[in-house]
Amino acid sequence: MAGQPGTRQAGPDRVLDVRGLRTSFFTEAGVVKAVDGVDLWVNRGEILGVVGESGCGKSMMARSILRLIPPPGRIVAGEILLEGQDILALSESQLRRIRGDAVGMVFQEPMTSLNPVYTVGNQVSEVLLAHRAGIRRRERADRVVELFRLVGIPSPEQRVTNYPHHLSGGMRQRLMIAMALACGDPRLLIADEPTTALDVTIQAQILELFQRLQADIHMSVMLITHDLGVIAETANRVAVMYAGSIVEYANIDRLFENPSHPYTRGLLRSLPQRGRDARKGLLYTIPGIVPNLLDLRPGCKFVDRCPYAAEEICLGSEPTLECVEPDHWVRCRRVADIRE
Amino acid sequence: MSNPAGALESQRKTMSSAPQIRRKRRTRLADLRRMFRNRLFRLGMMILVPIFCAAVFAPMLTSYDPVQLDTSSKLSAMSWKHPFGTDEYGRDLFARVIYGSRISLRVSALSCVLTAVFGVLLGALAGYYKPCDGLISRVMDGLMNFPGIILGIMVIAALGQSEANVILSMTIMYTPRIVRVVRASVLEVKTFDFVDAARVVGISELRILTSHILPHIIAPLTVQITFGFAWGVLVESGLSFLGLGTPPPAPSWGNIISDGREFIRTAPWLMVFPGLMISAAVMGLNLIGDGLRDILDPRLRNTARRIGTALG
Amino acid sequence: MWTYVVRRLIAFVPTAFIAITLIFILTRLAPGNPVWALIGDQSVPAEKIDEVVKELGLDRPIWLQYVTWLPKALTGDLGYSLFYRKPVLEVILDRFPITLTIAGFSTILTILLALPIGILSAIRQNSITDNLSMVFSTVWISLPSFWLGFLFIIVFSVFLRWFPSSGYRELSFGAWPWFSRLVLPVLALSLAHIALLVRMTRSSMLEVLGNEYIVAARAKGLTEVKVLYKHALRNAFISIITVIGLIFALSLGGSVIIESVFAIPGLGQLVTTAALRRDYPIIEGGILYLTFISLAVNLLVDVSYTLINPKITYE
Lengths: 340, 312, 315
Hints:
The complex is a heterotrimer.
Chain A: E1 14-27, E2 30-43, E3 47-51, H1 58-65, E4 73-82, E5 85-86, H2 92-98, E6 103-106, H3 120-131, H4 137-151, H5 156-159, H6 169-181, E7 188-192, H7 200-217, E8 220-225, H8 228-234, E9 237-242, E10 245-251, H9 252-257, H10 262-269, H11 311-314, E11 322-325, E12 328-330, H12 335-338
Parallel strand pairs in A: 3-8, 3-9, 6-7, 7-8
Antiparallel strand pairs in A: 1-2, 1-4, 4-5, 9-10, 10-12, 11-12
Chain B: H1 4-15, H2 19-26, H3 28-37, H4 39-56, H5 58-61, H6 93-128, H7 130-144, H8 150-159, H9 163-190, H10 193-201, H11 205-242, H12 253-260, H13 269-296, H14 302-311
Helix pairs in contact in B: 4-6, 4-13, 6-7, 6-9, 6-11, 6-13, 7-9, 8-9, 9-11, 10-11, 11-12, 11-13, 12-13
Chain C: H1 2-29, H2 34-39, H3 46-55, H4 62-75, E1 80-81, E2 86-87, H5 88-123, H6 128-142, H7 145-159, H8 175-209, H9 212-219, H10 224-261, H11 267-277, H12 280-308, H13 310-313
Antiparallel strand pairs in C: 1-2
Helix pairs in contact in C: 1-12, 5-6, 5-8, 5-10, 5-12, 6-8, 7-8, 7-10, 8-10, 9-10, 10-11, 10-12, 11-12
């Protein structure tokens, strides 16, 4: 288990293996390095949480996996292995066969992810049409109802003819999950902020659905969010992302027991505390703002906001992910001092 | 927890990043620079500025009087003496076209100013005060239903042919569009929280309207007015061509084309040049409008929006 | 859904009303006694003028004139034209089909050409196709239609002798005489509108393509063709449909000028000549007619929009 994630350990139990992923946007204003060297993997049957603030590139990373990056963006480097197969090397038609079948994706805003002019039943069954060529209408209709039931949509037979604007936010999100599961055996579900647009009670239901699917059909999930609470509740392992790179990567318990990267520590400190002592004093915030991705200095990207920053050590070249204990990697040259 | 003063300082720093305030102080110059970097804007200016200068400095560009007859050189083609040729009265076409630019641009510009004034007034009223909205919107809709320049023809027919009436009819035709734009802007901004915040602090409604809401309409208004200017040149020339616009012998571009009709086979240049000028002026203005739209409202550019929303 | 349709119909009434009233007011605003315009230079004894004034009801207060005029106007009694010595309605109906033909063909041509180009430009954003169509549309939008008309005449009639330069022939005179006289006017009228519609279509399509459900559709593994045609186009069409009414209104308005260029005896030319001669009954009747047609088409488009937009249909 020791050793850097970049070393070529073929993990037979890894559903997804991302190595050195870089995705940049070539705009008129300059090159934006949205994803700048990401290494992570998802084991079979586990929920990997990817956490970071808005703008850190986690959405772009998620979309890169299915090569859904719009121009002027482009994946410029890296390897994305889905059960050993390099996604970046696939042809368009091969890629399409994976999308919606082996890998499903759920987006943040369920209202805008659904086409308002088609019924929800239509939008789910078109996934089946696209991937299961011979499937007949009757069979398809049955499958759609079955899927609705699986994700917990009440009165599925009636709902099939509804339009997206007839459903509540929580139900639309369940629908998106149904679409991702449509073909029956998804290896990986990528969920990009699936609960951000929902209120707390519905959030809990959706997260519970993920866990149920994980238990029942042994599904692997990459759960992307900015909400540490969601991660704490649902994920098995966590990757913390900042300005396009992973800065900490660990088993969930280890992360909360012993956060080692200054950013992670800052994040955990900013969580409102409960209890009498906590009511005194101001809420902690990480000073400064996210760096402008057009204008980065060579070196650690967190250096302007880091309480442990030391120019001689932290600038110059970007730090690499180091393993500080089993199943715990940190991208910081001062980690030894931090973990006193 | 070990540095409450530092935490407070950093909080103050993050809070002061209210976008509007910072912008006004530091980035005005950057805005201007951005404006000139835009290709469309530059191209439009390159076309329009010479025309504009020609209009202003007309007497220096040509020694001929646009209405002076010279029967010895009737209907002559392009030559060194007469770069654009002459018409059937021997008048130098180049001079007529140059002086014509004064009229066409002036008429359109004046109607733009009037349109802006009335449009903002009516649009702001309609957007801000619900009871006015019903009446104003209905009337504007009614006005917009007249196809093409029919409304203009009707106004001229009713009030007589004169430059003032042309300006008036053009104003009447374009104001509904500006009202619509302004009204939409006001309606949008009205719901923003800072309006309520201003009210809570006790700022008068009028002050809210002028200093908080109106700045937001400047961008779409400028773009629409620029396009309105282009439209105005086209409409003025159309009306003049029909004989219902600027009264002759004033050499509006439309008039010149209309005069040149009978000589279409013998002296086609009489129509080609003024038409070229109209096209150039309109194109220049349209390009400037496109450029301004890109500069002032980046939300309309799809790339920026997609990156922006997707990155988070 | 039908309640929505009825509501739209009801909303149509005040707008139409305002337009009609405006026409009434403007034609009566003309300074001077309108009878003078009718008489021209003839010398007429004063009593005769008074007689005509009384006959035409011009001495009554304005609101009374309005109230008597309105029902007549709405039912088609638009008065009598002294210039043509015929009821106004008859003069209008003689010429209306011609204008409708031109405006109709122009609208159809515009839609047939502009939609594919606009959609293609959006799909292939920033490609050569796109840039070229954008450049062309910027240019074409700026050209005055009457000037284009004359250019076409110079090139195609005078120089190449392909088409006649003016006039109008009924279909009964033969297919080619009728068609050949329509080609140039319709083309000159349509070009600017094509450019406009290309831009609108492109931006509408781009907006649709920027939506999340397009990305989601791709994420489902649908072919690009399916994504574009099933998901993108359907949504884009919904917003493009609303523009069709605008295009028709522009064509109708534009034909006023084009008819003058090509000496086509349509409704537009009728109104223009009437405006120059101060023939108020014709001006009034002609403009009423044109405006009404435009209103009707817009209403039709509005209603069909509500029918194809499921958000409204299934409210």
